[in-house]
Amino acid sequence: MDIDFPPTGGNTLPPPEGMTASELRDEMLKAYPVKTLRKRAKQILPNDPDSPPEIGANSRTIPGILTQRGCTYAGCRGVVIGPIHDIVHITHGPVGCSYYSWMTRRNLARPKPGQANFLQYCMTTDMQEDNIVFGGEKRLAAAIREAYELFHPKAIAVYATCPVGLIGDDIHSVCRIAKEELGINIFGFSCEGYKGVSQSAGHHIANNGVFKHMVGLVDEPVENPFTINVLGEYNIGGDAWEIDTLLRKCGIDVIGTLSGAVTYDEIARCHNARLNVVMCHRSINYMAEMMEVKFGIPWFKVNFIGADSTAKSLRKIAQYFDNKKLTDRVEEVIAQEMAVVRPVRDDVKTRCIGKRAALFVGGSRAHHYQDLFSDIGMETVSAGYEFAHRDDYEGRAVLPTIKVDADSRNIEELKVEPDPERFQPRISDKVRSKLTKEGFTFHDYEGMMRDMKKESLIIDDISHHELEKLIEHWKPHVIASGIKDKYVIEKMGVPCKQLHNYDYGGPYAAFTGAANFYREIDRMVNSPVWNYVTPPWLKKTPDAVPVETEEAVAAH
Ligand code: CFM
After folding, report:
1. Average of pLDDT values for 68-97?
2. Number of the ligand 1 atom closest to the C-alpha atom of 80
3. C-beta atoms surrounding 298 within 10 Å
4. Residue-wise DSSP of 202-217
5. H helix count then E strand count, the chain
């Protein structure tokens, strides 16, 4: 077996039994009925970085399996568009959908003087039974009018939830009429929760809507030749601010971060940039592609999670702009930042080296955060996305071979063409061919598998049962995951780093964020508190289950 397990540190769990990736996979699968087993077998694979195996991703979760996934509405309203802080977001549906996408802690905004911030509000049409029976369009029209009178926003976005799609309310007509009546930009998203197999469908719907209704509204010449957009960065825990500060320090201006800490006007102007860099490939590759076709803005993948990855990303941006002054400045900033980060990293590494991590997060973090762990000498033994597609695992090279199934066909593919007036290649042919000679790549996401060790275990859309088996047999020292399984993991004696909204931690992006992360992981994996937890499979007797005695029943 290729994974070299060192002795455990902070965790009280006994040392691993030496189960190989294939044996652990079998152990996970054997509890399933045949049909379930056959499907899950395609989604749990021992890794081969040189030749990534084909994974069954972006397919329906089998009912009954405890998944971490969210819905299409969550991906559209909650993830991609929700963070735009100066437009009003109205959820058309029952109050619960709106309540659970309320941005109380997830997305942060620092409005400049004169800018609005509506993130603290939770706006919903609060559909009732009679709206389901007789239709909710009038209620939606009234809600839009009310929101306009109260807030006078620049734009209003309306989101459809499951019941809206089921009863057939035409939110787009309601928006069109309201737009004419009120004279502001109003648009709707048919992002009913059931539209796709996960929140991933919601990303695509959101990208389409933002592209159609916001991008390209304001043409404006940019003065700084080094002007970019950061796509797929949502300012969780202030990450976008870290990235923005770092880029500005280098002399690079960001027009828009889509969609973290961003305003309507920034999105309306972002097509004037000279480059798009992509953080979260899964959620925003559609936008990067569409902006390139329509406006001629090239894109490539970056990763500002991890100190070495941040330095690498900065260097790639500098290489693209092909300017000596910028390149020198970038090197200067990297040297300054690394001088601060390196001592923290070296110190933390002495206590974390050789420990094991496992990551099960969304559609990009399970990959990105491996770099932070490897910075401090920790190895990722298992990882997987909740809802990413094959390209996020195996690399974009497999895109032409991905079969489009009925679920994906459900989501509109916009027909985009070069804009007759505004399409403009952002770099000359001469620079482009120079870059090609240097081995520079665009559209270049190689996926998670190539960065992981051979015989690590890749698990797509992991279930609670599989997670439990992983902990029991491979005993990771830390698991990066989400709130749905955080406490299950911790009850098994393993610390869980919550990577969706970071709980109260962060930022973790760029150099300052990396140092925060190292310190936090150090505290987690080396804390003696985990020694006090006995995982369920080591308990001699199960936890007592209260028994309903006759006296107890009588006492009620
Ligand atoms: Fe992209 Fe995201 Fe993620 Fe995502 Fe998400 Fe998220 Fe995530 Mo939670 S856009 S794929 S749909 S990086 S909300 S900010 S943390 S699952 S890994």
Report:
1. 95
2. 9
3. 19
4. HHHHHHHHHHHHTTTS
5. 22, 14
Nearest CA to ligand 1 atom 14: 234
Catalytic residue among 21, 25, 40, 74: 74
List ligand 1's pocket residues with C-beta within 6 A: 75, 79, 199, 232, 234, 236, 280, 282-283, 361-365, 500
Cα(137)–Cα(143) distance, integer angstroms: 10
**Higher-pLDDT residue of 287, 15:** 287
Atom number in ligand 1 closest to CA 388: 10
| Catalytic residue list contains 191 | no
- Establish whether 74 is a catalytic residue: yes
Res 554: pLDDT: 59
The C-alpha atoms of residue 83 and residue 237 are separated, in whole angstroms, by 12
Q: How confident is the model at residue 9 (pLDDT cuts 50, 70, 90)?
A: very low
User: Which one of 25, 40, 92, 203 is the catalytic residue?
Assistant: 203
261: left (phi over 0), alpha (psi -120 to 50) or beta: left
How many Å apart are CA 238 and CA 502, to the nearest integer?
10
Give the max Cα distance, the chain: 88
Residue type, 467: L
Q: Whose Cα sits closest to atom 6 in ligand 1? A: 500
pLDDT at 117 (0 to 100) = 94
Is pLDDT at 103 greater than 70 in this prediction?
A: no
Tell me the CA distances in angstroms from 274 to 226, 229, 232, 254, 490, one per residue in order: 7, 8, 17, 10, 46
Known catalytic residue: 352? no
Task: Write the residue with the smallest CA distance to atom 15 of ligand 1.
Answer: 500
Active site residue 496: no
SS3 of 86-112: the string is CCEEEEECCHHHHHCCCCCCCECCCCC
